[in-house]
Fold this sequence. Notes:
globular, Peroxisomal Thiolase, Chain A, domain 1, single chain, alpha+beta, 2 domains
Amino acid sequence: MAAGIKDKVAIVGMGCTKFGEFWDKSEADLIIDAFKEAQEDAGIEIKDIEAAWFGSCFDEVNAGKGGIPLSRTLKLPNIPVTRVENFCATGTEALRGACYAVASGACDIALALGAEKLKDTGYGGLPELGTVNGTENLFYYPNLTAPGMFGMVASAYFDKYGLSPEEGKRVLARISYKSHKNGAMNPRAHLRREVSMDAILNAPIIAWPLGLFDCCGVSDGAAAAIVVPATRAKEFRPDPIYIKALQLSLTPATGIGHQSWDGAHFIETQIAGIKAYQEAGIKNPRAEIDMMEVHDCFSISELLTYESLQISPIGKARVDVEDGFFDLDGKIPCQSDGGLKCFGHPIAASGIRMAYEVYKQLQGKAEPQERQLKGNLRVGLTHNHGGIAGSLVCSVAIFGNA
Length: 402
C-alpha cells in the first residue's frame, strides 16, 4: 500500500454554522459565516488561499454551477475552485481534495467548504429514489425510499443476529436517545431536545422497524476547513490537528446486484476503515480511537458502523450500546455533538461538520465546555456513507493532535 498522506497535512482553521431551517439566510450567507469563522481561526486573509474545493449536492439552490458560488461569494482572487459531489460523503470529499493538493505540494494553503440549503428544495420525508444516477433501481428496491431501504437493512440484521423485534427496536432507540441527549447540549445543533426511551419506542413507524426518532432530518448549513502542510502548521496556531488518514470506498460488483450481499452489513465501510487504519498506523481501533462521528442517517446505520469499523465485534454492537460504551462518558464517545440525528444533515456540509467536532474536541475547545470530552484525547475518526444501501460510497477520515 502507498504511504498515503499521514502527517503531511494539518488543519489550522475551521468554521461551522448552526444547522437548521434558515428561511432568512441564503446559501451565500451560510458560506460566508462558515468561512469567516475558519479564516479567523487560522489567522489568514483571503489572498492567502491558493486553491479551494466546494462541496454541494443540490444545484437547485446554487447561485451558479461548478465552483462559481464559492468563488463569487468569497471573492476568491482568480484561484482554482473545484466543485465536488459524492452523495453524503461530499463534505469529506471536498476535504480530501484540499488535503491531497497540499500533500502533493501543489499548494500551501487550501480551503474545503461544504454548503447546502436543503430546506429550500422541499427535500425530506419519503422522497422516492427509484432512479439513482440515471439507472433504474426498482428491480432491487420497489418504491425505494431512504427509510425503506434502511428499514430492510435493520430487519436483515435482526434476523441474522437473532434479535427479536422488541430487542432490536430497543437497541436502536438507545442509539437515538444518546444522540438527542448530546444534541441538547450543543447550541449549533438543529434539534436540541432530549427525548425519553419511551417516546422513541412509541413513536410513529416510518418504515418498519424504524420509527420517527430513528431517522435524521435534513437541514441548511455550511462548514469549512483550512489546511496547510504539516511542517508549517505551527506557524498558524499552537494546536493544529493533523490528518492521519483519508480513505474512500465505493460498492464493488457484489452490492445490490449480487445475491452474496446479505443486506445486513456495509462492505464499503469495512474496506474504507481497513485502509484508513493502515494509512494511520492503527492496529487496534477499539483501543486507539478516542472519539467518533459516524453517519447516523438512521439508527441502524450507526449500529452497523460500530461493527464495520472494528470497534464492536460483528453481531455484538448491541452489548456496547446498552453498556454506554459510546455515550459521552463512555470509552469511545460517538456523536458527541448530536450527530446527523440532532446536529442536522445539510448533505454537503456534514462531513466537514464532523471534522469540526473532532477538531474542537481534540484541541480541548468544545463549546460550551460542559460538552468537552474528558481524558487524554489523541485520535478522532469521522465516517460518511451515501447512495443506497448495498450501493454506497463511504469515506473514513482519521485525525490526531500530535
